[in-house]
Design brief:
The protein is of the alpha/beta class. The chain contains 15 helices and 23 strands. The strands form 7 sheets. Strands 14-17-18-13-12-20-21 form a 7-stranded mixed sheet, sandwiched between helices. The chain has a 5-stranded parallel sheet with strand order 9-8-7-10-11, with helices on both faces. Strand 7, helix 6 and strand 8 form a beta-alpha-beta unit. It is globular, with a radius of gyration of 23 Å. 53% of the residues are buried.
Length: 495
C-alpha cells in the first residue's frame, strides 16, 4: 500500500449523503436527513437522506421504467458484460476513495478496506460480467413431436437490502448476478454504512449503466427497508442481515405480492478441534484470526470454539496468547488490524453479551472491556470465554463482535451434537488429521459450508449461504442467477 496520509484524506473528504434515483442524486422527498456518526470518534460524519416510502416508490418506478424500456434488459449478454466490466474497473480506479468511505462509515481498518473490500466487490462484478454470456439455455428431451425450450429471463425489479459489516461486498453479491441477468435494482444500504453504495451507483452510471437501472435509497430499516420489501412492484428481495429481520422479510412478502425472498441471515459457526490434529499452532492462529477479523462483525465468524477435553487447556492458552495481535487501534493507521465497532448501539450490545457471559458462569480469560474510550470511538477488546456450555446466551445468540466462546467435548459424537445444537447453520470447521473423521464429521454437520483444516478460504465460484435459520439464499457462484431469473418453458408442437 503506497504511503497515504489517511487522516488528511479524511479531513478533506467531501461526503454526499443524498440518494441516487433515476440517475440523479436527490434529497429525500420529505427533506429529512439523519446524522451519520463515525465509529472512529463518535463525531458527525454526514447528513444522510432519510429515505421513506415516497423515495422507495420513486426508485421502484424508475427501476420499472428502465426495465420495461429494454435499455438494459434487451442488450445482448456480451454488451451487458462490457458495461459491468467497466463498472468493476471504475471501482478499482476509485479504490482509495471507496476504501476511505468504507472505513469512515463502519470502522474497519483501512488496510482491509483497501486490500479486501474494494477488490472483492470489483472482482464479484467482473466475474458475473464474464459469466453472463456463458450460461446456456436448455432443450428438454420431449421426443420428436415437440420442441420444449427452457430459457432464463430477468425477473424485473430486484430489491436488495444489505448490512453494514461488509457494505460493498454484500452489495456486489446482489448487484453482480441481478444486473448481469438484465434486471433493475433498488438497493437499500444499512443506515449505519450508506456511503459506498451511493458512490458505487454513480460509478456504474459512468461505466454506461442506463439511468434507472441501479438506484440507491438510504434510510432506516423500519422505513425505507420495510417500504421496499412491501412494494407491490418489486419482484424479488435479496436480503442479508439478522434472522429477526429475515422473518419480517417473509412476512412482508405475504402481505404484498408474494415476491420472492432470499434471506442470507445470521450464524453461530462451530470450530471443532480434535486431539489428533498435528498442527495446533496453525489451528489456534486460524481460530483467532477468523473470530477477530472485521472486529468479529461477520455472520460466518467461528464464535463457538469446540475443543477436545485432553487438549483444551493447551489450545485455549495458544489462542489467548495471540490476542495481543488483535488489539483495537486507529482504523486509519495502515498497521491496524482491528478497528471500531460500527456504532454505539452495537458496542453496547456486545458489552451486554459479555456481561451475560460473566453472569452465567463462563470464565473471561481475556478482554471483556471497552477500549480507547478517550477517542470517542466504539472499540471493544478481543474477548475469550472458557467454561461455556451450549445453553448459555453467549453460545446460542449471534453477538456480532469480537467474543469467542470455548466449549469442550469428550468424543466425536458429542462434538457433532454440540455443533448442531444451534438454530443457525451457516458455516463450520473441522480440524483433524484423521481423513475418515474429517469426512465423517463434515458430512454430519448441518451447515452451508464446512471447512476442513482451514477456515474461511473463499472463492466467488462457490455458493455462500446456510441451513436452518441462517437463511435460504445462496450468494456467489452461478447458483446466484437462480435467485434473479425466471425459468420459462416454451412448448412448440412439431407437425
Amino acid at each position: 500500500m503506497r504511503d497515504i496520509d489517511w487522516h488528511e484524506r479524511a479531513a478533506s473528504a467531501v461526503l454526499d449523503g443524498r440518494a441516487l434515483i433515476g440517475g440523479k442524486r436527490v434529497a429525500a422527498a420529505s427533506g429529512e436527513t439523519f446524522e451519520k456518526l463515525s465509529p472512529l470518534n463518535g463525531r458527525a460524519l454526514v447528513q444522510t437522506a432519510r429515505g421513506a416510502a415516497a423515495d422507495i416508490d420513486a426508485a421502484v418506478r424508475s427501476a420499472r421504467a428502465a426495465f420495461e424500456s429494454g435499455a438494459w434488459r434487451d442488450q445482448p449478454p456480451a454488451s451487458r458484460k462490457k458495461v459491468l466490466q467497466r463498472f468493476a474497473e471504475q471501482l478499482m480506479s476509485h479504490r482509495e476513495e471507496l476504501a476511505l468511505l468504507e472505513t469512515l462509515d463502519m470502522g474497519k481498518p483501512i488496510r482491509f478496506s483497501m486490500s479486501v473490500d474494494v477488490p472483492s466487490a470489483a472482482q464479484c462484478i467482473s466475474w458475473y460480467a464474464e459469466a453472463v454470456d456463458k450460461i446456456y439455455d436448455e432443450i428438454a428431451p420431449t421426443g420428436p413431436q415437440a420442441l420444449a425450450l427452457i430459457t432464463r429471463e430477468p425477473m424485473g425489479v430486484i430489491g436488495a437490502i444489505v448490512p453494514w459489516n461488509y457494505p460493498m461486498i454484500m452489495a456486489a453479491w446482489k448487484l453482480g448476478p441481478a444486473l448481469a441477468a438484465g434486471n433493475s435494482v433498488v438497493l437499500k444500504p444499512s443506515e449505519k454504512s450508506p456511503l459506498t453504495a451511493m458512490r458505487m451507483a454513480e460509478l456504474a452510471l459512468e461505466a454506461g449503466l442506463p439511468e434507472g437501472v441501479f438506484n440507491v435509497v438510504p434510510g432506516f430499516g423500519h422505513e425505507a427497508g420495510e417500504a421496499l420489501a412491501l412494494h407491490p412492484d418489486v419482484d424479488a428481495v435479496g436480503f442479508t442481515g439478522s434472522t429477526r429481520v429475515g422473518r419480517k422479510m417473509l412476512e412482508y412478502s405475504g402481505r404484498s405480492n408474494l415476491k420472492r425472498v432470499y434471506n442470507e441471515l445470521g450464524g453461530k459457526s462451530a470450530f471443532l478441534v480434535f486431539k489428533d490434529f498435528t498442527d495446533l499452532d496453525r489451528a489456534a492462529s486460524t481460530a483467532a484470526s477468523s473470530i477477530f477479523f472485521n472486529q468479529g462483525e461477520s455472520c460466518n465468524a467461528p464464535t463457538r470454539l469446540l475443543v477436545e477435553d485432553s487438549i483444551a487447556d493447551e489450545f485455549v492458552a495458544r489462542v489467548t496468547a495471540l490476542v495481543g495481535k488483535y488489539q483495537p487501534a486507529d482504523p486509519l493507521n495502515t498497521k491496524t488490524v482491528m478497528g471500531a465497532l460500527v456504532d454505539e448501539g452495537q458496542m453496547k450490545t456486545v458489552l451486554g453479551y459479555i456481561d451475560a457471559g460473566n453472569s452465567e458462569g463462563a470464565r473471561c480469560v481475556t478482554g471483556g472491556t471497552r477500549m480507547l474510550e478517550q477517542t470517542g470511538g466504539y472499540f471493544v477488546a478481543p474477548t475469550v470465554f472458557d467454561g461455556v456450555n451450549n445453553g448459555m446466551k453467549i453460545a446460542r445468540e449471534e453477538i456480532f463482535g469480537p467474543v469467542l466462546s470455548v466449549l469442550r467435548f469428550s468424543d466425536e459424537a458429542q462434538a457433532v451434537a454440540i455443533a448442531n445444537d444451534s438454530s443457525y447453520g451457516l458455516q463450520a470447521s473441522v480440524w483433524s488429521s484423521n481423513l475418515d473423521r474429517a469426512h465423517r464429521v463434515a458430512r454430519a454437520l448441518r451447515a452451508g459450508t464446512v471447512h476442513v483444516n482451514q477456515y474461511d478460504e473463499d472463492d466467488i465460484t462457490v455458493p455462500f449461504g446456510g441451513y436452518k435459520q441462517s437463511g435460504n439464499g445462496r450468494d456467489k457462484s452461478l447458483h446466484a442467477f437462480d435467485k434473479y431469473t425466471e425459468l420459462k418453458t416454451t412448448w412448440i408442437r412439431i407437425g
